[in-house]
């Protein structure tokens, strides 16, 4: 410290140093030049390209004309990566078919559309985990076959019909989890779950991700859920990590990205909850 500073200024200088050190601790410095080829390429290009496809509450898209165009914890951590690298953040739209391949083909640097971690995907990408997904089972409270069930195990019954979207992420799980139940595959309508199947009494129970469940529950009256505790938000059924991803074999970059996520974990979880609350409010 400069001894020529007046006492008051010394404290101000010390305070500024502590703030800087704290900020550095919260957001680790990116890989130095020459350590990560990807980080070097991003700095040279002046932009960090991130693949985007809405998957709230982790990544949500604002209405047209609103800024920022994207929000949620995935976008928040991407902004922090770009800031630390000293570059602009550039969003690149991807589809369900291209969100993973776009990494290998160098169309994006990071896929920030949240991806559920699977053994197949782990062969080609590495994750920065943000949260986790899990499944709830819902049905009509007025339907005794559902209302009398206390746990998901009670739905594994030949007298119970379970509907699901054919080709959806829950299909394989439903077939394995409920081998004794009657299974009814239906075409996807773009909704979170085929709720019309229980409303029309063609099915007794339906799987749904824990997050869209809270929205559906506000929109459609008379539904019940399993597990009931905390409105199914603590469900362990089909629980899987979910996060953003980069292409394989980028260890220095991956280590830094995970460190930044860890340092900002509290802010990211708060943002996830904020988006969930907004989704619930909008559904009322």
Detailed description of the structure:
With 284 residues, this protein is of the alpha/beta class. The protein contains eleven helices and twelve strands. The chain has a five-stranded mixed sheet with strand order 4-1-5-12-6. A three-stranded antiparallel sheet has the order 10-7-11. It has a two-stranded antiparallel ribbon with strand order 2-3. β8, α7 and β9 form a beta-alpha-beta unit. α3 packs antiparallel against α11 and α9 runs parallel beside α11. The longest helix has 20 residues. It is elongated, with a radius of gyration of 23 Å. The termini are far apart. The N terminus is likely disordered.
Query: What is the global morphology?
Result: elongated
SSE order, one letter for each helix or strand: HHEEEHEHEHEEHEHEHEHEEHH
Q: Care to count the β-strands?
A: 12
> Could you tell me how far the N terminus lies from the C terminus, measured between alpha carbons in angstroms?
57 Å
Report on the biggest sheet. 5 strands, mixed
Strand order of the largest sheet: 4-1-5-12-6
Number of helices: 11
Uncertain residue segments: 1-24
Average pLDDT, rounded to a whole number, is: 91
User: What share of the residues does DSSP label as strand, in percent?
Assistant: 15-25%
Structural class: alpha/beta
Task: Estimate percent helicity.
Answer: 25-40%
Kindly provide the radius of gyration, computed on alpha-carbon positions and rounded to a whole number of angstroms.
23 Å
């Amino acid at each position: 410290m400069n001894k020529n500073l007046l006492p008051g200024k010394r404290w101000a200088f010390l305070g500024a140093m502590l703030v800087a050190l704290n900020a550095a601790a919260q957001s680790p410095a990116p890989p130095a030049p020459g350590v990560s080829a990807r980080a070097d390429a991003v700095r040279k290009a002046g932009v960090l390209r991130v693949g985007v496809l809405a998957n709230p509450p982790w990544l949500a898209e604002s209405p047209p004309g609103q800024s920022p165009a994207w929000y949620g914890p995935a976008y928040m951590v991407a902004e922090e990566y770009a800031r630390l690298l000293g570059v602009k953040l550039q969003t690149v739209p991807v589809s369900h078919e291209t969100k993973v391949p776009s990494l290998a083909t160098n169309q994006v640097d990071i896929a920030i559309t949240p991806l559920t971690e699977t053994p197949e995907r782990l062969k080609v990408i590495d994750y920065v985990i943000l949260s986790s997904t899990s499944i709830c089972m819902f049905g009509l409270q007025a339907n005794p076959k559902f209302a009398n069930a206390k746990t998901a195990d009670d739905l594994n019954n030949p007298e119970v019909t379970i509907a699901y979207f054919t080709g959806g992420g829950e299909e394989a799980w439903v077939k394995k989890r409920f081998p004794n139940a009657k299974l009814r595959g239906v075409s996807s309508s773009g909704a979170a779950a085929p709720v019309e199947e229980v409303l029309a009494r063609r099915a007794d129970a339906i799987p749904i991700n824990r997050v869209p469940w809270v929205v559906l529950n506000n929109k459609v009256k008379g539904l019940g859920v399993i597990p009931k505790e905390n409105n199914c938000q603590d469900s362990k059924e089909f629980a899987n990590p979910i996060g953003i991803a980069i292409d394989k074999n980028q260890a220095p970059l991956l280590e830094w990205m995970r460190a930044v996520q860890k340092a900002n974990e509290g802010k990211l979880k708060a943002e996830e909850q904020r988006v969930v609350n907004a989704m619930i409010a909008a559904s009322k």
